[in-house]
């Protein structure tokens, strides 16, 4: 009787062990008929490429250069236009730096005076100083771009200097040739002299004519 019970226990154990072995229970190894697809793991992988945000400039192409001409007289300084209008200016040196020299463009006779023209440098300016070699000197405002000098009847160097709180710039100079001025002056003097001589001659002739008429009247 005991042997029968023992056999039943062995049979039960074998019946239980068979399916456990077929499933490889407790080994952590999946059974041979169980195939796992690699596609199932794609849901756990971040296969998407990272998105780099593109920041487009909001004000691209909207900024413009200020309506500023360095050779124009009596205009608002470019830095003031830039602050008020948001426009662009060329690079300017500061008030505590020596200014760059102005650009002297012409020195010419206009019929009544010698006129000097220049263009402003890209610097902070408080005034300009125009000098004639061995003669005249003028100080002008920062918004001026020309100076009218008195007559220069000789060859001379004319210079312009920019000034600010830090000091003076280098000189910008041009040699003035008074040839056309002298020619006009000479022609004028000659013409005036000849006209004056003609007037004197006419006056003398009139006086003589009157005397002759008086003498003829007496003889009659």
List its salient traits:
single chain; 220 residues; alpha+beta; five-stranded antiparallel sheet; three-stranded antiparallel sheet; 3 helices; 8 strands; 20% strand; rod-shaped
Walk me through the structure:
- The chain starts with a helix and ends with a helix.
- Strand 1 (103-109) and strand 2 form a beta hairpin.
- It is α+β, with helices and mostly antiparallel strands and 220 residues long.
- It has helices at 2-22, 78-85, 179-219, and strands at 103-109, 114-119, 127-132, 137-141, 146-149, 156-164, 167-168, 172-176.
- Mean pLDDT is 77; it is low at 18-26, 40-45 and 47-60.
- Strands 3, 4, 6, 7 and 8 form a five-stranded antiparallel β-sheet that branches. The protein has a three-stranded antiparallel β-sheet with strand order 1-2-5, with no helix packed on it.
Shape: rod-shaped
**What share of the residues does DSSP label as strand, in percent?**
15-25%
Largest sheet: 5 strands, antiparallel
Contiguous low-pLDDT stretches (5 residues minimum) are: 18-26, 40-45, 47-60
Number of beta-strand segments: 8
Average pLDDT score = 77
Helix percent reads 25-40%
Note the run of SSEs as H and E.
HHEEEEEEEEH
Treating each run of at least 4 consecutive H or I residues as one helix, how many helices? 3
Rg, rounded, reads 53 Å
N- to C-terminal separation? 208 Å
Category by helix and strand content: alpha+beta
Organism: Characodon lateralis
Domain Epidermal growth factor receptor-like transmembrane-juxtamembrane segment: 187-214
Protein name: Epidermal growth factor receptor-like transmembrane-juxtamembrane segment domain-containing protein
Keywords: ATP-binding, Membrane, Nucleotide-binding, Phosphoprotein, Signal, Transmembrane, Transmembrane helix
